[in-house]
TrEMBL record:
This is BAG family molecular chaperone regulator 5. GO terms for biological process: negative regulation of protein ubiquitination; protein stabilization; regulation of inclusion body assembly. Keywords: Chaperone, Repeat. GO terms for molecular function: adenyl-nucleotide exchange factor activity; protein-folding chaperone binding. GO terms for cellular component: cytosol; membrane; nucleus. PANTHER family: BAG FAMILY MOLECULAR CHAPERONE REGULATOR 5, BCL2-ASSOCIATED ATHANOGENE.
Length: 464
């Protein structure tokens, strides 16, 4: 009996699933294992294209892609499908690796890091290497703070590699700021003591000199400006300094004990930063969505939204009886107690939450003031004009509080234009020398600017 001839037989072979022991399938399985081991490394790589690890990962993935391409599928659809899926997986990792290393936000992080590196090298590291004194002052501290703020505003789109890169840059800059600010405070003290005071003082002074050198070494390490030293080596040096101080006999002299304690504390302050070589490898550190402080802040923000919506509903019908100011004040107290752990992103998140609470409180305060207002016949016309603008600002603030759009929205542009018009109206008010009107106009201008700033904050798409 004819079973359909060679063509049907070949078709049946193509439809039949291939045994996992088939050489082509075995090779694809091996490739998939290697891809599975490289995947986590690619997904957390936070460097640039010229980094050694980038080149290694790119080389490994390219090799796997070539190996997949060389798998002989014998023209079988099932093998072809398996090879295609394996190739797509490798190509996806290569694409993800390149996208993150060349992402505009990643380049922005690198630019800010380079700016910080040049600043620190010029003001701290280079002078110390030349045998001079580091130029540490308020100007340097402010410049570092400005760079930290810019880093917190870099958008990561939720990408783990970008979050990691931003976190690592921030931790280093914050550590340097901490070291620099600590040094600034030290310069204001009347220490070190004279060597004649006690035989141990001379040795403490010697350690103090070593600490000063170690401080500059640490700053250089954190900013990648030291090619020879390592954090482990610096940690050993600092620990040896502690041991040397602990061995000193300073009994019976409180002033010297305090001096030694001060130097030990400065050493401890440096030691807490020397482990930053591996800082950021733990995703819990830079995935702030899982941070307990952020969760606290988010819970407060959710509560504020609930209260704000209730206030706006009551105000829409002219009901001013719902005034949860005590509850809002308690939320401010709660936010003040949130532990930011000196993390600039958490600090910024808390600051923004505070602004949200304060915006609702000022809205309630102005509404109450407008409701209580009873102008007399002798009121200065310019003072009355300021209050008319405040009434308009209160209505606009209600719209700003309820706004939930983006800067490209027409409603945003309309609100911005109307608020600007109110500022112009205040600018046109002539107090005619009336002091009360001058004060009222100044407060109204500040109020209008705060509403504009709040609207701007609500739409700047900031992220943790």
């Amino acid at each position: 009996m004819d079973n359909g001839g060679p063509q049907q037989q070949q078709h049946m072979e193509q439809q039949q699933p291939y045994h996992p022991q088939h050489p082509a399938m075995m090779r694809l399985y091996e490739v998939q294992k290697e891809v599975a081991s490289l995947g986590p490394q690619v997904c957390t790589f936070s460097g640039l294209q010229n980094d050694r690890d980038y080149k290694r990962l790119e080389r490994e993935l390219t090799r796997l892609l070539l190996e997949v391409d060389q798998v002989d599928t014998e023209g079988k659809p099932e093998l072809q499908g398996a090879r295609k899926r394996a190739a797509q997986e490798v190509e996806g990792l290569l694409r993800y690796l390149e996208e993150n290393a060349t992402h505009p936000s990643r380049l922005a992080i690198e630019d800010l890091s380079n700016e910080a590196r040049a600043l620190v090298d010029d003001r701290v590291v280079a002078p110390q290497r030349a045998g001079g004194v580091a130029e540490i002052n308020d100007e340097l501290v402010d410049a570092l703070q400005g760079l930290i703020l810019k880093l917190t505003q870099v958008k990561t789109e939720g990408r783990v590699p970008l979050r990691k890169a931003r976190y690592r840059a921030l931790t280093r800059l914050c550590a340097i700021q901490d070291v620099v600010e600590g040094r600034t405070q030290q310069q204001t003290l009347s220490l070190p003591l004279s060597g004649e005071t006690h035989e141990a003082v001379h040795r403490i002074n010697q350690v103090m000199v070593k600490v000063s050198v170690a401080r500059s070494q640490l700053v250089a390490l954190l900013m990648g400006l030291s090619g020879r030293d390592s954090c482990a080596h610096l940690s050993r040096l600092l620990t040896e300094m502690q041991v040397e101080l602990d061995a000193l006999d300073v009994s019976g002299n409180a002033a010297i004990r305090n001096y030694r304690k001060q130097v030990v504390e400065e050493i401890n302050g440096l030691l807490k930063h020397v482990d930053l070589e591996v800082e950021g490898d733990d995703t819990r550190r830079y995935d702030l969505a899982q941070n307990n402080s952020i969760r606290e802040i988010e819970a407060v923000r959710a509560h504020v939204v609930h209260l704000r919506e209730g206030i706006l509903r009551h105000c829409a019908v002219g009901d001013l009886s719902f005034r949860p100011k005590a509850e809002l004040q308690s939320l401010l107290t709660h936010l003040d107690q949130v532990d930011t752990a000196k993390n600039p992103c958490i600090r910024e998140a808390r600051r923004r939450a505070v602004v949200e609470v304060q915006a609702v409180i000022t809205f309630l305060d102005l509404r109450e003031a407008l409701a209580r207002r009873q102008p007399g016949p002798a009121e200065h016309p310019a003072h009355r004009a300021v209050w008319l603008v405040l009434g308009s600002l209160s209505d606009l603030q209600a719209q700003v509080l309820g706004f939930d759009g983006k800067r490209v929205d027409k409603s945003y542009m309309m609100l911005e234009e109307l608020l600007t018009k109110q500022l112009l109206a205040l600018d046109a008010v002539d107090p005619h020398g009336d002091e009360m009107t001058k004060v009222a106009r100044k407060q109204a201008v500040k109020f209008a600017q705060n509403i504009l700033n709040y609207l701007d904050m609500k739409t700047d798409e900031w992220e943790y």
